[in-house]
Design goal:
879 residues; alpha+beta; five-stranded antiparallel β-sheet; 28 helices
Amino acid sequence: MLTDFLVKNLDFVFFIYGFAFSILGIIIFLQLRVTKKSKFRLLDILWLLAWFGFIHGISEFTDMFLLIKGNLLFLRILGVLFLFISFACLFLFGYRMINIGERKRLGIWFPVTIGLLFLGLPALSGPTSFDTWNISSRYFLGFPGAILTGIGFISYYKSEGKKLGDVKVEKYFILIALLFGLYAILGGWIVPKANFYPASSINNTWFISFFGIPVQIFRSIIAVGIAGSIWSIMNIFNLEEAVEQKRVDEELRESEERYRKLVEFSPNAIAIHSEGNIVFSNTAGVKLLGAQNPEQLIGKPLMDFVHPDYREIAGERIQLMTEKGKNVSPIEQKFIKLDGSVIDVEVISMPFAYHGKPGIQVIIRDITDHKMAEEALKQSEEKYRMLIDNIQDGVFIIQDDKIQFANEAFARIGGYTAQEVIGKEFREFISPEDLEIVADRYHRRQVGEEVPFEYEFHMLHKDRRTRILVNMNVGLIDFHSRMASMGTVKDITEKKLLESQLLRAQRMESIGTLASGIAHDINNVLTPIMLSEELLREKFTDEESRRYLKIIERSTKRGASLMKQVISYARGVEGERVALQVPQLISEIRQIAKETFPKNIEIRTDIPKDMWNVSGDATQLHQVLMNFCVNARDAMPDGGTLRISGENLLIDEDYAHINIDAKVGPYIVITVSDTGIGIPPNILDRVFEPFFTTKEHGKGTGLGLSTALGIVKSHGGFITVYTEVGKGTVFKVYLPAITTTETLKAQEHQHELPAGHGELILVVDDEEQIREMTKKTLETRGYRVITANDGKEAVQLYTQKREDIKLVLMDMMMPVMDGSMSIRELRKANPEVKIIAVSGLTQKDKIAKVGDIFVQPFLTKPYTAEKLLNIIHEVLSAK
C-alpha cells in the first residue's frame, strides 16, 4: 500500500529527497559556524560537502516542480545546472578529502581526466539533450565524487585520527564511508532515461518492484545517516577543541602565574610605565624607590624618580621605544628615592603593550654597592704599592734566576733589606739542604712541567747559619713581556711550633675521648639496670621492695649523672633561643644545597604542614644541618639523593629507656639521609670524636660532627646515626618541641595504644637490648613474644612454630644471615607470612624491596612503643 502511494505521488518522494539533502547541507553549515577554528583539516573543506547537500536538495526540489508544473524549459535548465554544481562540489570534496595527509594520492591528472570524460560523453552522443548532461554529471562527477569521499573519510581517519586521542569516532567514519559508497552505487546504476547498462535494466521501476520503495527514499535515508554521522564527528571535534582550549587556557594561566611569581619575587626591581606614569611595580621596586607599598608609586610620573642629570637621555630613550618601538641598550644612571636619597642603578628597558596602549617595562638593579666597589677597587689599585710594601707575607718576582722584585717583608725574613736582595740570584737565599729541590722545581716550572705550586723549604738567614722554615706559593706570570715566577713566602716557623703544641693538645683530647668511651660503656651498664628497675617497680609493690628499688634508682641515676659530667666537655654553648619553625629551617637549607651542590645530587624534602616549633638558635641549627648536608654531598661523589625530612615524635618511656639522651615528651625529628658510600662499621663509633676525620689532609678538621653534637645537646636534644656501607647514611636530630595545646593533646592520645590478644610475634635483632625491650613492650600490651638474634635462628624458630607465629619483626642488618636472605627463606616456607622490615635507613614510600619480594610494612629505627604497636596492629588487622 505504501509502495502504491509513493509511486502515485512521486512529487512527494522528490520533496522528501530534496528536503533530506537540504537538511544535510544546513546541518553542516550550522556546525561550521560553531566550529570556526580547529586543528582538524577536515573542517577546511567540509563547506564543499555542505554546498553539495544544499544544492543537491534544490536540484531535487526542481524535479518535484517538474512533476507538478510540467516539462518547463527553465525548470529543466535549473535542474541540470543545480545537479552539475552539486556533483561538482561532491567531486571536489572527495578529491581534496583523499589528498589530506602527508602523501598526495591523486594528482591534477585525475580531475582533468574526469573533466574530459564529462564533456566527452555529450559530445560523442550526437545531438545532446538535458538528459545527456544529467547522465554525464551523475556518471563522471557524482559517482566518482561519492567513491572518493567514502575512501577519503577512511584515509582521513587513519592519518588524522590520532589527534582525537582516546575518543572513539572510528564507527562514524566507517558509516559515512559505507553510506557514500552505497550512494555512489545507487547513483551510478539508477539513472533516469539512460539507454545503456546497467541503467537500462536497473532503473527506478526495477528498484521499486524489488525493494518496494523508490530509490529517492533510500537516498534520503543515506543523506540522513551522513548528516547524523557528520553531526556526531563535529560535536566530538568541538569537544576535543574545548578540551584543547581548556588545556591551553590552563597552561596560559600557569604561565602567567609563573611570570607573576617571577616578577613579584625577583630580587631586581621590575616596573611598567605607560603614558609617562608608573602603572605597576613589584616588591623589589617598591623597596628600591623607598616606598612602603605599590600604591605610593602607582600613578606617579616616572621622571620624578630620574635624576635631573639623566632626564634628557631618559626622555629620548622613552620616545624611541614608545613611538618607534625600538629596543634600547641597558644604561647606568641615577635615581632619586622618595626620601630624596640618590642611588646608582642599571636600567634595562623594553617596549611593552599595556592594556592596548604603548608602555615600557623596566628592570632596575641597584648598583650603588657595585659603584662603591669600583671606586674602592680604584683606590685599592692606587694603594697597591703601599700594600705590597707593607704586607706581612713576602712577595717576589724571579726572572733569569735573579730576583727582579721583592717587598720589604720578603727581605726581612732573611734579615735583609729590599735593595740588598733585588738583582741577586735566588739560590743565595736557599738553605743548602733544600737548594736542589727548589732549583729543580723552578727550572721544571719554567719549561712548562707540572710541579707543586705550594710547598715548604728552609731559607738561609743573612748570618748564613739560621734556617727559617717558609711556605711558598708560586706561579708563572708575564713580566715585561717575558715569563717570570711570582710568588709569596711566609715564615711558618712559629706556626709549626703551634702545630706541635696542638698535637700535644690533641693527645690530651684523646684522653678525654677515652674517658667518654668509658663513660659510654658505663652508661650501657647502667641503662639495663635502670630499665630493669622500672619493670621491677611494676612487679613488686610492697613497701620493702619499693625501698630497695628506690636505692637502686638513686644509685643508678647518680652514676648516670657522674657519667654525664665526664662527657660534659662535648656540650655546646648556649645561644639566643627563640621559637623556630622547622619547615622554614629545612626550606632554607634545601635552597642553599640546591644552589651550591652538584647537579647530579637530587635534593628532596618531606615537610609535614603541622610540625611543632622548637626553641633554639637558628644560626647554630643551620650549622648543624649544613654540616650533615655537606658530609652527605662528600659521600656521593658520583651523585645520588639527599633527603631532608621532618616529623613530630612523642617519645615514650620505652623509647627513652633505649636512648639515654631522650626524655619522655614531644620532639621534632629532622632526618638527613643520603644514598652515598656509607660509614664503615669500624669507624662509626668515632664519627663524633673531636678531630676525627676520614677526609684527606687539609680537607677536613674533624670538628664538624663533634660541634654539631655539642650544639644539639645544648638544645636539649640528641643525634642518632644509622648507616649501611654502599647504601647510605641517615642522621637524625631530635630536638624538644615547645609545649603547646597540640603537643598536650598528642600526649593524651599517646596513651590510647592498640593491644594484642595473645598473638605470637617473632622478634629478630642482633642487639640484645633492642630484643629484650621490644619483647617487654609487646608482652605488656598483650602479645606473646619469642626472639632470635640472627636470621638463621629466626628461620629455625619459624619452621618449628609456623602455625603459631602470626607476625615476624625482622631487622635488615644482622650477622650470619641478614634480613634480606632471611625474608627469602621465610617466604619459601610460607609465601603468606606477615613480615615487618626494620632498618635505620629511611625510605620515603616505606617499602623495602628484597630481591623480587616486596615487604611493604617498614619500621624505621629507632622506634617508639606507639609506632611499634600501631604498625603491628595495622599488619595483623589487614586481610
